[in-house]
Automatic annotation (TrEMBL):
Residue intervals of the Calcineurin-like phosphoesterase domain: 1-162
Record's keyword terms, sorted: Hydrolase, Metal-binding
GO MF term list: hydrolase activity; metal ion binding
PANTHER family given in the database record: VACUOLAR SORTING PROTEIN VPS29
The protein's required cofactors: a divalent metal cation
Protein name, per record: Phosphoesterase
PROSITE patterns for the chain: UPF0025
Family note: Belongs to the metallophosphoesterase superfamily. YfcE family.
EC numbers on record: 3.1.4.-
Keyword check for Disulfide bond: no
CDD domains listed in its UniProt record: MPP_YfcE
């Protein structure tokens, strides 16, 4: 199984084009979008190349391969532009290892506030814009960072699940965080 993770696009056309280029090159089966897709949000500046309608158009080209959850900046108006569902606060993916992958944005559930999980399950979320791939207690916390507004001095990043390896990568190929399931 190969999954590609992107979070916090915030309507940036340039960031979305980079994500989709790397997604296509990765050979991943699905693009997992962890929220904050079209809107920049009131606490963020308007990103360069801000173009939510065009971002929606590009993402819609991959609608059959996208698994998406709602972020705190996403709304029903955004859903009207997108041809794949993204208004759920979370989604589950069963991994071939038997572990569960809990997908969420991070504003409702995260490493500090977890749903009922088993040992070895993974919480994948965005929201903080900070890359993470590590055990915290009995679960793995995974955050692909942010494409548009990386924080704490990190470069723009995305996530990749390949076989049993979860990694956060920069667009230059640097591994920022990695963990084996």
């Amino acid at each position: 199984m190969k999954l590609f993770f992107a979070s916090d696009l915030h309507g940036s056309l340039e960031a979305t084009e980079r994500v989709l280029e790397h997604y296509r090159q990765s050979g991943a089966e699905h693009l997992v979008v962890l929220g904050d897709v079209l809107n920049h949000g009131p606490r963020n500046p308007v990103p360069e190349s801000y173009n939510p309608p065009k971002v929606a158009e590009l993402l819609n080209e991959h609608k059959a391969s996208i698994i998406a959850v709602r972020g705190n900046c996403d709304s029903e108006v955004d859903q009207m532009l997108l041809e794949f569902p993204m208004m759920s606060d979370y989604a589950w993916v069963m991994l071939p290892t038997g572990q569960r992958l809990f997908l969420t944005h991070g504003h409702l559930y995260n490493g500090e506030k977890r749903p009922a999980l088993k040992r070895g399950d993974v919480i994948a979320h965005g929201h903080t814009h900070i890359p993470v791939a590590e055990w915290q207690g009995e679960q793995i916390i995974f955050n692909p960072g942010s494409i548009t507004f990386p924080r704490n001095g990190y470069a723009a990043s995305y996530g990749l699940l390949k076989d049993d390896q979860l990694s956060v990568m920069t667009f230059d190929g640097e591994v920022l965080a990695s963990i084996t399931l």
